[in-house]
Amino acid sequence: xxxxxxxxxxxxxxxxxxxxxxxxxxxxxxxxxxxxxxxxxxxxxxxxxxxxxxxxxxxxxxxxxxxxxxxxxxxxxxxxxxxxxxxxxxxxxxxxxxxxxxxxxxxxxxxxxxxxxxxxxxxxxxxxxxxxxxxxxxxxxxxxxxxxxxxxxxxxxxxxxxxxxxxxxxxxxxxxxxxxxxxxxxxxxxxxxxxxxxxxxxxxxxxxxxxxxxxxxxxxxxxxxxxxxxxxxxxxxxxxxxxxxxxxxxxxxxxxxxxxxxxxxxxxxxxxxxxxxxxxxxxxxxxxxxxxxxxxxxxxxxxxxxxxxxxxxxxxxxxxxxxxxxxxxxxxxxxxxxxxxxxxxxxxxxxxxxxxxxxxxxxxxxxxxxxxxxxxxxxxxxxxxxxxxxxxxxxxxxxxxxxxxxxxxxxxxxxxxxxxxxxxxxxxxxxxxxxxxxxxxxxxxxxxxxxxxxxxxxxxxxxxxxxxxxxxxxxxxxxxxxxxxxxxxxxxxxxxxxxxxxxxxxxxxxxxxxxxxxxxxxxxxxxxxxxxxxxxxxxxxxxxxxxxxxxxxxxxxxxxxxxxxxxxxxxxxxxxxxxxxxxxxxxxxxxxxxxxxxxxxxxxxxxxxxxxxxxxxxxxxxxxxxxxxxxxxxxxxxxxxxxxxxxxxxxxxxxxxxxxxxxxxxxxxxxxxxxxxxxxxxxxxxxxxxxxxxxxxxxxxxxxxxxxxxxxxxxxxxxxxxxxxxxxxxxxxxxxxxxxxxxxxxxxxxxxxxxxxxxxxxxxxxxxxxxxxxxxxxxxxxxxxxxxxxxxxxxxxxxxxxxxxxxxxxxxxxxxxxxxxxxxxxxxxxxxxxxxxxxxxxxxxxxxxxxxxxxxxxxxxxxxxxxxxxxxxxxxxxxxxxxxxxxxxxxxxxxxxxxxxxxxxxxxxxxxxxxxxxxxxxxxxxxxxxxxxxxxxxxxxxxxxxxxxxxxxxxxxxxxxxxxxxxxxxxxxxxxxxxxxxxxxxxxxxxxxxxxxxxxxxxxxxxxxxxxxxxxxxxxxxxxxxxxxxxxxxxxxxxxxxxxxxxxxxxxxxxxxxxxxxxxxxxxxxxxxxxxxxxxxxxxxxxxxxxxxxxxxxxxxxxxxxxxxxxxxxxxxxxxxxxxxxxxxxxxxxxxxxxxxxxxxxxxxxxxxxxxxxxxxxxxxxxxxxxxxxxxxxxxxxxxxxxxxxxxxxxxxxxxxxxxxxxxxxxxxxxxxxxxxxxxxxxxxxxxxxxxxxxxxxxxxxxxxxxxxxxxxxx
Length: 1259
Prior knowledge:
Elements: H1 3-19, H2 22-31, H3 37-44, H4 49-60, H5 65-77, H6 81-88, H7 108-116, H8 130-141, E1 148-153, H9 160-167, H10 171-177, E2 182-188, H11 192-210, H12 222-236, E3 241-247, H13 250-255, E4 261-266, E5 278-284, H14 291-301, H15 312-319, H16 324-336, H17 341-349, H18 367-376, H19 380-388, E6 398-399, H20 400-407, H21 411-423, E7 428-430, E8 437-439, H22 442-451, H23 456-470, H24 481-496, H25 500-507, H26 510-520, H27 522-531, H28 533-558, H29 566-570, H30 578-591, E9 598-600, E10 612-614, E11 621-626, E12 632-637, E13 641-646, E14 652-657, E15 663-668, E16 674-679, E17 684-688, E18 694-698, E19 706-711, E20 720-724, E21 731-734, E22 743-744, E23 752-757, E24 763-768, E25 772-777, E26 783-788, E27 804-809, E28 815-820, E29 823-828, E30 834-839, E31 846-851, E32 857-862, E33 867-871, E34 876-881, E35 888-893, E36 899-904, E37 909-913, E38 925-934, E39 937-944, E40 949-953, E41 959-962, E42 970-976, E43 981-986, E44 991-995, E45 1001-1005, E46 1012-1017, E47 1023-1028, E48 1033-1037, E49 1042-1046, E50 1055-1058, ...
Parallel strand pairs: 1-4, 1-5, 2-3, 3-4
Antiparallel strand pairs: 6-8, 7-8, 9-68, 10-37, 11-12, 12-13, 13-14, 15-16, 16-17, 17-18, 19-20, 20-21, 21-22, 23-24, 24-25, 25-26, 27-28, 28-29, 29-30, 31-32, 32-33, 33-34, 35-36, 36-37, 38-39, 39-40, 40-41, 42-43, 43-44, 44-45, 46-47, 47-48, 48-49, 50-51, 51-52, 52-53, 54-55, 55-56, 56-57, 58-59, ...
Helix pairs in contact: 1-4, 2-3, 2-5, 5-6, 8-9, 11-12, 14-15, 14-16, 15-17, 20-21, 23-24, 25-28, 26-27, 27-28
């Protein structure tokens, strides 16, 4: 131990022995490692307190400096302040080895060194930022071996000074790197005389500590001061650290350029470029405080705990944008006026920085002065350029090229200017990007906006004018960062500049829609129409809603790659729409140059279906839900992701890779701050709904897939309910503050598919595969009652299970509604009596149901792709929502009941307006149809959804004739012009011929015993031929009901064809699922030929126009070409990967097209059977098929240059090149066939949701 310390202990020994309690002090000394357990035991054995104190001091006198310091610290900690003072002056200044004492490293040694060097104390309110502090210390350790500079730079108020002081508050750092001490000099914006005074006082301090007797004359000039400092630093204090705080000017730094160790804090990182010395290490202080740290600071100021702060605290922290300065300013003000939370929040929100005055040692009176000071040091021309940055959006990073357009300067010049802004902490740079992106801190933006409030409009106008000058011919489409910026923010700048005419011209233009949708996707575009709606509506609210509707309903198409033709999509808009008007003009212009476009003539008969269609995931969507404020929708499904998007526009807000397996359900908490998900991976997760960060994982308790999760409806007592496929522990309640479940509801012994809280959160209903619903009391988790749903299906035996899919509560909480099989039941909660049942078609199952929280409506999701709305007071169906192309898994009303969402296997979420969905009286047609082209007159015949036969005018879609409702389903139809009649074939085998338009029955033909699948008149109209599931073809002289039966096939006969249209040729070709093709003479009924053509079912057959060949296609994945003369197989065409569903010869009989169930079309040479082209190889669409489904029909144009095909949509192809020329997307899907006019100008089809399309080629 040092001599001084030893003699001090001996001098103070008597007083210490009288007062100290050794056992208290020894705990600290043991943890400091200066006392052993054995030594403590030896001292504790002494009989009295005084004896123990004597023994401790005896031992201490034999130990080293560390023991003395540890003893001193123990006295301080145990409140023996007066005794500690006796020892203070003789504390060893340099302890031989680092020791751990105060947790912050603030040992007496450190405190002495720092206070002697003038390093400021910690602020009254201090929150540690260990990660940043350690990063600065790591840089300082690099100065251990040789002199150099470390620079901490950051914007005004980012906490640079506190960080620098904290970094040197470390025992080991000072001992190992700076044993000569640490000296602090606060500089600021000083002129030369003031700077000289500062250096004089530093020199005096250094000389005094070395030799208090010798007093030198203070240096009289900066040059002399520099030399004096050099001498002191190199000779007297060779290993000390000089901290220069808040440097603005490099001339100041040159005064200190004396080959010593220096830490600089500044707003300008380029200052140290001008000085010599190694290790100019930069430490950029970009990240502000996170929310929790900022709340901690406020809590310390107002002497409270973070969790007890008022709600305004979080909002204040958000407005402070992470700035330590602003948080501290607000905290200090609140300490004086603790009731002013909302007042200061308003000041921040209104950017009233002048009102937020200092109450700290900061150099500027208010935040705005601090910011202004940074800008003042720029050259005047650069100040003007910096002002231009006022127009940037918050949290948006811009590439230099955007500013090069704005400032009309070369990109290299712009980068130099931006580098200067970055150096002065007036701008930040994202270096993870190439090229670099630049951005402002929110506070800097707020300051600029406040400073330049009167010029905002002109600044935005400058942006727009510079863009227009630079891109006068067409907008940028490169897809790079600059292009993305202009495409995304041009409308924003126009709106802010109040350039409403330019905004109308841009946003009411189909060209802009195409450009922006292709580069940014539809969500951003729809958002523009919503955001700037007020401005656009002043010009024309109708046009604005037409563009918005077009995007909302076609958004899922615009996300497809390859990108669809926007003009063709827009031709499906109503005739009175501006979108359609522009599309037609463009289509006509392009058609004159040879491009194909098709106008949908009869679209006026179709009402708008869903309000918005979003395509959030690849793969089925199992669950989607509204947030409680209705502004957001969350969805999840087979893609293992969770996605959140705006309910108005579909714009993505958040996407999370949520689970390791399919995500089965998602739910918002009642305050919308949390999102829960559950999955087949057996985990339940809770997420922050704003940031997407994971807050909790519950993975231990469910051992099987978790099917459903739901939060309580109110925050009064927030709980999460989950249910799973477990055998016993299959329904649980979780309190999010506890690691394990709060309660398990026992009762179901089969999987629980769904759980749902009653509106007041008193009960939880659970729906199970055991055929019951159980109602549990939430408070006790006890079963209250069971409703036996299985008993509602008396026809089901013990073997067939009744799975209850889900349950929902009426708005008043008095009824519980559940779905099972093809039915929905409404039960009284008190009595468990069934009040009502809704039975859907036997072919469909109810997947989900949800009761409207504000009315008597119930939404039902069905497996046959439909959503239905029912009124549960009147038991009437109110509406059909058709549009989904696959099973619908979920439906949910918005909290105010005005909207309804549905999600499906077709990968879309659709939004419907509850009041606008069309009622079930809206007629939809069945896809089995016939069309007659007679000059300009087009006639369409098809059955409707009420099983009536309709004959319509093909041009307008208007109904010319409608039959009575038939008792048996109509399965096929055929039109005849001479006589004017229509035929229908039914499921019960009946064939009827009706006169058009009178509807009089001309004949009813009985004979078929099963469904009639196809019917066709002979060219003269006197003979009718029908085929059936009963394996026969019948040839009727229909006026006399004479009939010949062609028998021989073993399976159903889907189609047949006459070998030619000549009245004298009576040969007929039939094919069947039995793999055979047969030829018949319709006059005699004789079988002329019979061949076993394929191993599998024959799906299509076509005779070549020259009558020499016919082709067959089969489920065995082959097509074959046969000679009509020899009946020999001429070519077998292999290569399709799936069932070959359709075929067609070209009109010159030289080519053959075949289409399969994978959506692939192949073109073959008829001459040698070689493959000429494969169509649509490269453009698989989002539904993972080449054609959106099976290729069901094919037709060549009369000149054989074009081919049209149907599948999920209609496509037109260039036959020579095998390339798609155009695609028409119907509202529904799964087109069965297309009827083509002889001149290849009109195309007619019906989709899966019953909409008739009459398409005319645009000329």
